[in-house]
Specification:
Layout: E1 3-4, H1 9-22, E2 31-38, E3 42-48, H2 49-52, E4 64-69, E5 78-88, H3 93-106, H4 112-118, E6 120-132, E7 138-140, E8 152-155, H5 159-166, E9 174-180, E10 193-197, E11 205-209, H6 216-233, E12 237-244, H7 259-262, E13 267-271, E14 279-280, H8 289-302, H9 308-314, H10 329-348, H11 368-374, H12 389-405, H13 424-433, H14 446-449, H15 457-468, E15 472-476, H16 484-504, E16 512-518, H17 534-542, E17 548-554, H18 562-565, E18 570-573, H19 579-588, H20 596-601, E19 607-611, E20 619-623
Parallel strand pairs: 11-17, 11-18, 12-15, 12-16, 13-14, 13-15, 16-17
Antiparallel strand pairs: 1-9, 2-3, 2-8, 3-6, 4-5, 4-8, 5-6, 6-7, 9-10, 9-20, 18-19, 19-20
Length: about 625
């Protein structure tokens, strides 16, 4: 793929209207037919076999053609863009059919006049909009006025005019996605490149839809490399964050090259199970208790741990440490204790802490009366205050023993206001810490422990630093198993709030963007799950103002939440084998209604149809195959 800047506006306008003025008669070598009937939305025109034989690639369904006022009308510098939709009947069609039937019966060779009459075909075209000449090529999606049909000619534009039509953006940086391909059957060499402006991608939502092995990831890799080249040479930096569920973005395979191969030196790979030069991607469960508990829940649920006390543990909620000071005073101690009970679980389960990352007061501040009674047999072990995790665990476990002995009901187990000292969440945490005999308790967290790293708090900061520098970060989730969704949500959240902080501090400007890439989007923001991670809805609705774009891939757009789809500016579609999916897609963007059959029938790999924020109609194109030797040409 290649990027370039050209002062194209005036040139494109001049080229198209010079072509129109030189070819507004039936004598034009590009003339293909005369208009029979026209509305503001569609046109029927007649063409002839002799004409079609002279037109490169013929008059296929989906072909772009121009409807131009004839020279004698005196109207210049306008051209109506049509897209051929179907063959239709002509006004004398019944007579023509009768003649064909008679010829078939007799096998007679018709005379020249009859042959000429039988050579006419009617074609319908959808009006896509109208070009008007100005300093730059201007396109409107409607036709403000329409002459009578006989005042127009239909012209088949050559390659250089097709280029003006599909690449109307002017002085902007642009990326090369592929080559214009109007039909799956290739009759002539594909020669017209298809570009989109960089501005259509940055900070925008882009959906890439299609079945497996139809070219979604191939296009995605191309976008990543193109934007990285732009970031490397431009004053505008574009950080790119790729969540790689299958390892295809950092590992070469038989289908395509890896991004790490093509952009060597510009990519950093993080992994929950690192190999080679990958960086460990883990979490300090003490530094972020809320996230750590969420992660533990995800893994235990995936493992099917369904004991009652484990289920109760999974249903507990922790208040983020930084939010505790904002709570009413009478709630602060209760919420701090919950976090401390969670710390005890981690510590007992073998999660090694980094004291420097623990910012919360470790003293649970139990009453003197309760402390005296639990240490009654060993008063020498009672510390004046709790300052270490060892002291905290000892004291909490002694409280649990006392509470169980009295079935959680004792005057020392009540607050000054007479309420129970421990609520349901407290009891769930404490029971998980010290369950009944024969239960696994904290041992159930053994599979979670591999994701803990006491130094991991720097990992997220480093990821954000790479993105701020306009580099590529790949999150390897191919071995993350049940933690994939959680890790994706965690990093996305960190990025979102990082960008939001810059916005509040007035540090956000148009010289830095971040693009995220999500595969299997239907599992991340599914349509049927109303309580999916709210961070994705925030990205859909507010990502633009935070310079935070998202490219998401799925085989089933109808399985994604419509709230996200409705905010999507760019859509690229390869082959979809479900009519229901295509119908749904047409509801998201009605312009795809015209391409229903082609999307359902065209199976060539890398053959897509796309419309972007600045695009006014859908363009069919063959994406460039992403390989080491041509990925950036």
């Amino acid at each position: 793929m290649a990027q370039d800047i050209k002062q194209r506006g005036k040139t494109a306008s001049s080229n198209l209207f010079t072509f129109a003025s030189e070819n507004c008669t039936r004598d034009s070598p590009y003339f293909i037919g005369s208009v029979i009937y026209a509305t503001y939305d569609a046109v029927t025109f007649a063409t002839h076999d002799a004409i079609q034989k002279q037109i490169e690639a013929g008059l296929s369904k989906g072909k772009f053609v121009l409807m131009i006022p004839k020279a004698e009308t005196g109207i210049k510098d306008t051209a109506i863009l049509l897209q051929i939709t179907e063959i239709t009947t002509l006004p004398r069609e019944q007579q023509l059919q009768d003649t064909r039937l008679e010829i078939a019966k007799t096998s007679d060779v018709p005379d020249v006049f009859t042959c000429s009459e039988l050579g006419y075909t009617g074609l319908n075209g959808k009006i896509l909009g109208m070009y008007v000449k100005g300093d730059e090529l201007t396109f409107g999606s409607d036709v403000p006025s329409m002459l009578s049909p006989q005042q127009y000619v239909i012209i088949a534009p050559p390659a250089e005019i097709i280029d003006c039509i599909i690449n109307t953006h002017t002085t902007e940086e642009r990326v090369h996605l592929g080559t214009f391909r109007p039909t799956e059957t290739i009759q002539t060499t594909l020669s017209v490149p298809f570009y989109i402006p960089v501005s259509d991608l940055l900070g925008k939502r882009t959906g890439v839809f299609g079945v497996t092995r139809s070219g979604k990831s191939n296009l995605n890799k191309g976008l990543v490399v193109e934007l990285d080249k732009f970031s490397e040479k431009s004053k505008t930096k574009v950080g790119q964050l790729i969540f790689d569920a299958d390892g295809e973005y950092f590992t070469d395979n038989i289908h395509s090259a890896a991004v790490t191969t093509v952009r060597n030196g510009r990519v950093t790979v993080y992994s929950t199970n690192p190999i080679d030069d990958q960086i460990p991607l883990k979490l300090d469960f003490y530094a972020d208790p809320q996230a750590g508990l969420s992660w533990a829940k995800e893994i235990l649920l995936a493992a099917g741990r369904d004991a009652t006390y484990i289920e109760a543990f999974l249903n507990t909620n922790l208040t983020a440490i930084e939010d505790i000071p904002d709570l009413p005073h009478n709630q602060q101690l209760r919420e701090r204790r919950k976090n401390l009970f969670y710390y005890c679980i981690l510590y007992k389960a073998g999660f090694i802490p980094n004291p420097g990352n623990i910012t919360i007061n470790l003293d649970p501040n139990f009453t003197h009366a309760l402390r005296d009674v639990i240490y009654e047999a060993v008063p020498q072990l009672q510390p004046t205050s709790i300052t270490t995790l060892d002291e905290l665990l000892i004291e909490v476990e002694r409280v649990i023993v006392f509470a169980k002995q009295h079935r959680w009901n004792h005057p020392h187990l009540t607050t000054a206001s007479g309420n129970p000292l421990f609520d349901a969440d407290d009891k769930a945490l404490l029971t998980f810490l010290t369950p009944n005999a024969g239960s696994s308790g904290v041992a159930a967290l053994a599979p979670v422990r591999i994701y803990h790293d006491a130094t991991a708090s720097d990992v997220f900061a480093n990821i954000l630093s790479h993105l701020d520098a306009g580099e590529i970060v790949i999150i390897d989730l191919s071995s993350a198993d049940e933690s994939q969704d959680f890790m994706t949500e965690k990093i996305i959240s960190k990025l979102y709030y990082h960008q939001n902080t810059k916005l509040k501090q007035k540090l956000l400007n148009k010289t830095h963007f971040v693009q995220t890439y999500l595969e299997e989007a239907q599992t991340i923001f599914p349509a049927l799950k109303q309580d999916y991670r709210s961070i994705y809805e925030k990205i859909a609705k507010q990502g633009g103002k935070l310079n935070l774009g998202c490219v998401y891939l799925t085989q089933s757009p109808s399985s994604c939440d419509k709230r996200f789809l409705d905010q999507t500016e760019n859509i690229f579609v390869s082959y979809l084998n479900s009519i229901d999916e295509i119908t749904f897609l047409s509801k998201i963007n009605s312009k795809f209604e015209l391409h229903r059959n082609e999307i359902n029938n065209s199976k060539s790999k890398g053959y897509l149809r796309g419309i972007t924020e600045s695009g006014r109609f859908i363009v069919p194109f063959q994406a460039i195959q992403f390989q080491v030797n041509n990925a950036v040409h």
